[in-house]
TrEMBL record, chains A, B:
EC number: 2.6.1.42
Listed PANTHER family: BRANCHED-CHAIN-AMINO-ACID AMINOTRANSFERASE (PTHR11825:SF44), SUBGROUP IIII AMINOTRANSFERASE (PTHR11825)
Record flagged with keyword Plastid: no
Taxonomic source organism: Piloderma croceum (strain F 1598)
Cofactor: pyridoxal 5'-phosphate
CDD domains: BCAT_beta_family
Catalytic reaction list: L-leucine + 2-oxoglutarate = 4-methyl-2-oxopentanoate + L-glutamate; L-valine + 2-oxoglutarate = 3-methyl-2-oxobutanoate + L-glutamate; L-isoleucine + 2-oxoglutarate = (S)-3-methyl-2-oxopentanoate + L-glutamate
Keywords, ordered alphabetically: Amino-acid biosynthesis, Aminotransferase, Branched-chain amino acid biosynthesis, Pyridoxal phosphate, Transferase
Recorded family membership: Belongs to the class-IV pyridoxal-phosphate-dependent aminotransferase family.
PROSITE patterns reported in the protein's UniProt record: AA_TRANSFER_CLASS_4
Name of the protein in its database record: Branched-chain-amino-acid aminotransferase
A Gene Ontology BP annotation from the UniProt entry: L-leucine biosynthetic process
Amino acid sequence: MKTHPPANTLQFGHTFTDHMLTIPWNLFTGWGPPKIGPYAPLALEPSSTVFHYAQTLFEGMKAYRDKEGKVSLFRPDMNMKRMNNSAKRIALPTFNGDALLECIKELVRLDKDWIPKEPGYSLYVRPTLIGTQTTIGVSPPADALLFVICCPVGPYYPKGFKPVALYGTTEYIRAAPGGTGAFKLGVNYAPGVVAQREAAKLGYVQNLWLHGPEHYLTEVGTMNMFVVFKQPDGGLELVTPPLDGMILPGVTRDSVLALARSHASHTQHIPNLPSNLTVSERPVTMAEVKAASTEGRLVELFGAGTAAVISPVDRIGYMGEDVLIPTGEDGMGPVSRPIWKELVGRQTGAIKSEWSVTVSE
Amino acid sequence: MKTHPPANTLQFGHTFTDHMLTIPWNLFTGWGPPKIGPYAPLALEPSSTVFHYAQTLFEGMKAYRDKEGKVSLFRPDMNMKRMNNSAKRIALPTFNGDALLECIKELVRLDKDWIPKEPGYSLYVRPTLIGTQTTIGVSPPADALLFVICCPVGPYYPKGFKPVALYGTTEYIRAAPGGTGAFKLGVNYAPGVVAQREAAKLGYVQNLWLHGPEHYLTEVGTMNMFVVFKQPDGGLELVTPPLDGMILPGVTRDSVLALARSHASHTQHIPNLPSNLTVSERPVTMAEVKAASTEGRLVELFGAGTAAVISPVDRIGYMGEDVLIPTGEDGMGPVSRPIWKELVGRQTGAIKSEWSVTVSE
C-alpha cells in the first residue's frame, strides 16, 4: 500500500491509487477475464500498434464521497456509451458498458479510502483502451487492452473561481468535418499541446479552438464551451456549439444543457438561475462574441468539463486584441454560478438526483 | 538468438530482429545514453502519456544488401530531418539526427544477417518516439523514449506488379489545414483504419484520401500519390499534390520528383523515361482525373512510399462509379516503370548514387 499524500498537495493526475483494472481482448477469443491487481507498469512489445499508430482512447469520470461516506459516480453510463463510440471510430473493440461499469465500481470500492475526506475532493477514474497488436501493419488491431487507473484529485479552484484568459488559436485546428473531434480519442490531444504552449507564451492560460474562416468558437482547451448573451427583451441566451461532428459530447456539457433546459421549461427550478432563459445549441462566431462584448450584450463565457466542472473566462486574445468578458465578484456569472452549484450538489450527493450512481453505501 | 523464418514466409511487420535501440529523454537531464539491447517488451506505467494522448511519431526506412554483401540505407538523412519536424509538431524532444543515424547504423550492422539473401528483400527500420511522462496532464511530456526496431521484409509485389483498385473516401478525412497531415505522427494513422476497412468491404484494396468540396486527391492509403496526364502536344505531365501542409513529405515522393526532374531538365538520363516530360507539384481534382480518363488523356496513377516503393492503380471507385486507369502488361505505366527501375537500382546498390549511405562494407 502506498502512503496517501496530504490532500492539499495533490496535483491532477500525479498520484495513482493501489490498484488497476485490466481486461485483455483478442480478435479470435474476445474479451478475457477482468483482473483487478496492483497498480503496476504494463509490459508491451515495442511493436504494439498503440506506440506507432495512436490506437488509443480514454474516458474521464469522478467518484465522489458524500458527508455520510457514501461513494458515487456521476452519470457513468454516458462515459461507457461514449467510450464505445470512440472505439468504433478507430476500429478498437466495443464492449458491454454495464459490465465494464460493474468492474469499475469494484475497483473504486477497493480504493475508496484514497478519496480525501476534505470537501471538493474526488477520485478521478481514467478508463483507457489501447491497441496492442504486435505486428506493425496499419489495420484494425487483433489485440487490445482495456485498463482503468484512478487518481485522487482536489478542487480545480481551491481558492475560489479564478477566471482564465484564452487565446483564440487561428494557426492550428483541433477538429475538422470528417475527422475525430466528436470522439474522446488520444489523437485529439497530442496535436493540441503546441497550441496550448503558444497561448501560454503569449500570457494566456488556455487556448480557444476556432473553426473555419468564420472563426466559429468550438472548444476551450480540453473543455466544451458556453457563452451567454443578453437579448433585446432583457432575457438571457445560453449558447453552446452543436454536436456537428467536431464537438466532444461532454458529460458536463450535457448536464449544463439539461439543467438549464429543465429550468427554462419550468420542469424544475434551479435556485437563482434567471427565469427568462433561452437555451441554444447553435454555431457562434468570434464576430458575434466581439460585437456583443463591445455593445455590452456579452454576459459571460465559460468552459465545461469533468476536471474543472465550470471554468469562467474573462478575456479572449483574438487577432491582436483582447475581447473582454464580464465576470462577477466571485469569478462566475449569473448563469454559470447557479448551474455550477446545482451540478456540484448533484455530483457530491448534497442534492439527490438520478445522475448519481451509488458505488458504496 | 531467434531463428530466421524462411524469406518467402515473411509478412510486413510480423518478424523482428534480435536487438533494439532505446534512448530515454528527460526534460531536465536531456537525452540519456543510447543502448542496444535484446528485442524485449517495454515496461511503461499505465499513466504514460503515449497511452492517453497519442504522443507518438515514427519513421520508416529500409536497409538493403547488395550482391557483394554491402549494406546501405536509402536517404536516411531525410528520415532524421522529418522525424525532428514531427517531434516539434507535438512537443516531443528533438535530437541530433546525425548522432541518431550512427546509432541506427550500429543496430543494423549488429542485425544485418537478418536481411534475407534473396533479391528484393530488405530490413525495414522503424524509429519511434513516444511520450512517457507518468502524470496525465495534457502538456509537453517531461519524459520520452526513442526506440528503433527492425524487421526483415520481402518485396511488396513478389509476383510482379499487381495494380490495385482504390476507393475515393468522401466521408472521412486524413488531414485538414492547420492539422497534422504533413507530419509522420501516430495520430494520422488510427483514424484512417475505418476508411480502409470500408474500402475493403466495397471490394477495393486501399482508399484514396480526397480533400474539400473539390475532392482534391491527396494521398493513397498510407502513401503519396502521382498521376500522369497526356498533354495536347503529346508530352506527359507527371503530377503530385504540393506540400501544402496536408501532404506527408515522403522520401519516395521526393526521390520520384528528383529523378523525373533531372531527366526532364536533361541533367541525367533515366533509361526509357519519355523525353517530353513535365513535372508538376500542383493540386489535382477528381473531376480532372475523371475527365482525363473519359477523354483518353489519363496515362497512369500510382502510390509511392517506402514499403511498396511504387504501387500502380487501375481504377478508383468514386461517387458510385469506377474511374478506369490504364496500366501496362506488367502492371506499370510508361513513367512509373523506368522511375521504379532507377529508384530500386539506387536503393539496392545496383546503381551507384549518393542517396545510398553505407552501413557495412
